[in-house]
């Protein structure tokens, strides 16, 4: 992976901005990605329509179910074009990525973050525990964005399919004799064919945008975790500092002069002992274990007894048992109008499996409203400031103004800032952590949705940051305004 050839601007983006970037990538490479989506589908589409010509909806269902398979070639081509390569669709089909395809067509088929998770399998070639650990790192704060991408593209497919049918019906004259429904209101074979072709077209048109949006979200997360923007900046600095040809020619002469001057000067050379590989690794491990590099937390969740994480990648035993039961009870559904009964059984089973998956997958967010915050200890020290209520004076604004008039400007704003943090923890239960920065604390306050409070705390954070790190004193009117607003936003009823 050569970051110097990266075709996009490697910078920090929000999840929604990353989705916009993916849509722009799909627009820029639309022709190639569309044919990469359509060409693998085309042979199977013809075969399925020929086999199910009396029930074309079955052909549409099979093609829809195989969407994780069709999405791989556009993703593979986009990953090459991202670094300046121009792979052709036909040559890319020869190296069609088939890694770990069976799970994606079975229990992972209902994944609500498929476009976000696909690159881990297709591009990084990870499986089992390595894949789960990688996804746990990548998902982070973007799980809801990936879910929204899946939902919006699903709705876009349905909208495009029905719009295509409506457009076709609008422009076809009645004299052609094309009818969708019979006199009893049942869908005719002609209508099934039209809806099927419209559905296939919608799948092929939306697929590049869905895949590229998830791919861009994956890239954005990697830029955050691996600091691609910083690495590219360092490379640009290094390229600008490369020696010119004149400096290269002068270097041997400089070495020769230094050697001649040093030859007649006696001296003692003393080697400086450095760290070898083992001692350096031990030192790095000791530094990484410090409190500044993370925090330990206890996570509790429900799971089955004797549960093994490796069992998630194995083929589910309940599917095998269900198929064995079906084979042993084939005569059970003979009196239930054949195929209709088994279709109902299949739909109920799929719905139950999907419901179980969703409950298990999102059991953490669903259980958060029921969890008590009594066991979460509020921090006592933030940024080296004591934020306990006991450390604050009775009248905070009056004490701040007294310190300000005495010339202790840093102590005055420090008191106002830590008093605000203390009140936010005590009154609004804002979950500050010792590892948070000032900007992250302001973001947590903004997430509360109280506009006046968030604007006040953001302004106070800016004033405190300019004084604490830039040594820039605010105006006296600014400090008085902050104290007056503090009385309105954060003062207790007894003050």
Describe this structure in words.
This protein has helices at 15-28, 30-51, 56-65, 67-70, 72-81, 89-94, 101-105, 114-122, 128-139, 143-171, 189-226, 228-240, 245-263, 277-288, 317-328, 339-361, 363-367, 396-405, 409-428, 438-446, 451-468, 476-489; strands at residues 381-382, 385-386. The protein is mainly alpha-helical and 495 residues long. A two-stranded antiparallel sheet has the order 1-2. Among the domains are: 3-232, no CATH class; 381-489, no CATH class. α2 crosses α3, α18 runs antiparallel to α22 (476-489) and α21 runs antiparallel to α22 (476-489). β1 and β2 (385-386) form a beta hairpin. The longest helix has 38 residues, at 189-226. The protein is extended, with a radius of gyration of 32 Å. The model is unreliable at 264-272 and 370-375 (pLDDT under 50).
List the defining traits of the structure above:
two-stranded antiparallel sheet, 495 residues, 63% helix
Secondary structure elements and pairings:
Layout: H1 15-28, H2 30-51, H3 56-65, H4 67-70, H5 72-81, H6 89-94, H7 101-105, H8 114-122, H9 128-139, H10 143-171, H11 189-226, H12 228-240, H13 245-263, H14 277-288, H15 317-328, H16 339-361, H17 363-367, E1 381-382, E2 385-386, H18 396-405, H19 409-428, H20 438-446, H21 451-468, H22 476-489
Antiparallel strand pairs: 1-2
Helix pairs in contact: 1-11, 2-3, 2-5, 2-11, 3-11, 8-9, 8-11, 10-11, 18-19, 18-22, 19-21, 20-21, 21-22
